[in-house]
Amino acid sequence: MKEFKIFQHPTGKQEAVKQGWSWPGFFFGPIWALVKKLWGLGAVLLVVVLMLSAVPVETEVGMLASLIMLVIYIVCGINGNSWREKNLRSRGFEHLDTVSAANPDGAIAVFLKGRQENSPVE
Questions:
Q1: pTM for the full model?
Q2: Pair 28, 73: CB distance under 8 Å
Q3: What are the per-10-residue average pLDDT scores of the chain (122 residues)?
Q4: How many CB atoms lie within 10 A of CB 83?
Q5: Would you call 107 exposed, middle or buried from its count of C-beta atoms within 10 A (0-12, 13-18, 19+)?
Q6: Which sequence ranges are marked TM in the entry (predicted)?
């Protein structure tokens, strides 16, 4: 089981953000950022990664470029979920709870189930 923070928008939409390392952020960096609506970060990462990818790996500069890209992807893995939390807050989402579940959809289901059980019966 993993820990997820549950965020809710005033419109009622919920989002679950896993705590800790972000494997999608590590493996997919710029694309992951764009999919998660981190537009500025995703655009900057995409430009930097494309520029670094253009350098031939056979050169010393290319080796350095590859190392820099690896560091970028590690930073995305370490910080990805906290970047996502900050982005959700800036878009009007509010942190409501932290739950344990196997995946984000399961986390939202656990949250909603707990909410139903704790609501007063009329």
A1: 0.86
A2: no
A3: 97 97 97 97 97 93 96 98 98 97 96 81 54
A4: 19
A5: buried
A6: 38-55, 61-81
**Residue 8 CA: distances (Å) to CA of 4, 89, 92, 103, 111:** 13, 9, 8, 17, 11
Tokens of 14: 């919920």
Between CA 13 and CA 34 the distance in angstroms is 19
Q: Give the number of C-alpha atoms closer than 13 A to the C-alpha of residue 55, restricted to the C-beta side.
A: 16
State how far the alpha carbon of 16 is from the alpha carbons of 3, 30, 81, in Å.
Answer: 9, 20, 10
Question: Given this model, what pLDDT does residue 118 score?
Answer: 72
The answer to whether the CB of 77 falls within 8 A of the CB of 23 is yes
- The span from the CA of 42 to the CA of 36, in Å, is 9
CB 23 within 8 A of CB 68: no
C-alpha separations of 96 from 5, 60, 61, 116, 121 in Å: 8, 49, 47, 14, 21
Provide the pLDDT for residue 121. Answer: 54
